[in-house]
Design goal:
Layout (H helix, E strand, L loop, with lengths): L8 H11 L2 H10 L8 H11 L6 H13 L5 H10 L1 H7 L8 H34 L1 H4 L1 E10 L7 H14 L5 H11 L11 E5 L2 E13 L4 E7 L8 H11 L7 E4 L6 H10 L3 E4 L13 E2 L5 E2 L9 E6 L4 E5 L3 E4 L2 E4 L13 E4 L16 H8 L2 H11 L12 H24 L15
Parallel strand pairs: 1-5, 5-6
Antiparallel strand pairs: 1-3, 2-3, 3-4, 7-8, 9-10, 10-13, 11-12
Helix pairs in contact: 3-7, 4-15, 7-15, 9-10
Length: 446
Amino acid sequence: MPKHKQISLCDLYEEFQQATSTNKLRMLTDYVDIEEIIPFEVRLAYYKSTGRPPYSLASMLSALIVQKIFSVPTVELLVTFLELSEPLRDFCGFTKSVPDPATFSRFKDKIGPEELKKILDRLVELTESYLKELDPFLASLLVLDTTGLEVPVRENNPKFFYSLKNQVEKGAPEKPENEIYAMTLMKMPKCAKAEPRAKLMYTNGHFAYAYTGAILTNGFGLVRNVMLFEGQKDPVLLKPVLNDFRQRHDLSRYAFFAGDAGFDSTENFRYLVKVCRLKPVINLNPRNTKDLPEPGFDPDGVPVCPKNQTLKFKYAGFCKSRNRIKWVCPLTRQGKKGYTCSCSDPCTPSKSGRMVYTYPEDNYRKNTPIPRNSKLWKKIYLHRIAVEQSISRLKLPLMLGRLTVMDFNGAYCDLVLAAIAQNLIALIALRARRNDKVRSLRWLVA
């Protein structure tokens, strides 16, 4: 087997020095002024809370963006490179001294993710006109997906899992290996002890303690909005992400929305069509589509039994949060242990009998504005991969796959900073008329 050369700190610094040469850094300043992307309200809020800080907002922001662009894994290593590289210090504006790692941590705490998102919003607006000229169709498409951002807690150490597995094996030595693993997973705590907001979830091909990051991109794969959640499921994330985006940007310039089957729900389809005025392209989730006979309706709109249309379903209440009416089988009775159905020929294997929901509006999930499997549907869904590619770039070159912070706000700031870095590089490429480099993150430093 050939031996791979071990990369030392000296090798890494030599590569970094070459990448941060004067010519390379000049590309950043020739096409974008860092002050241009900082809104006045962000600058006002920062200096109001800090008075006269030793380091300016633009300098601190420049250093953290450089960290993302050059894939520097830790703030400690960034500080080391700043101390060794004079061109980089000059670019960031650190003329007298270099901030220590604690100063960068306090900076993130003070500015917070919401103020950083205002900088992202400015970059979204600056890139939008260029992208619309480049490809109007891709610019009119919004794509949403989620990913897990793993947190550096002890529960994510494999030793933690295997110590629990050994305890399970001692208590049940006769169990097969697959049952041992299942029992061990059941013993895993639901959240991390050091950071309860990091939940146990299946992400990145394995179980881990992570936050849920929602990434909204356009058809180019450029991030338009990001939000961080505490382990929520996909179906309930669509509305808060788009509501947040609607408050910051003009949604009317977008025409289509694409998402995977995880966002398949009647509420999401209705929200996209009625509120956002977007044409949704979301594949049906087989788990939401039951292979059961569909009930009919009487002239008053009351569901009737699919096997005996003389039996009308019973009204079981109205759900305000989902704006739907619940109906239960006419032969179902509610007892101390819940619903039980006495039907001799049931239309469902459920012991509680058939339950049906009706909505005051039409079912947008079935009657989609764009016909399913049409040419336009397939064309739009084909570009859904843009958000997956964007997530890959955020995790690998932009280092979100190796979080070094544990707290929720720190991870949220890193997520927004990665999105800022991606859009900043795209803006430079667009202004330099390097349209083929819009999706590339490393072309400036290659």
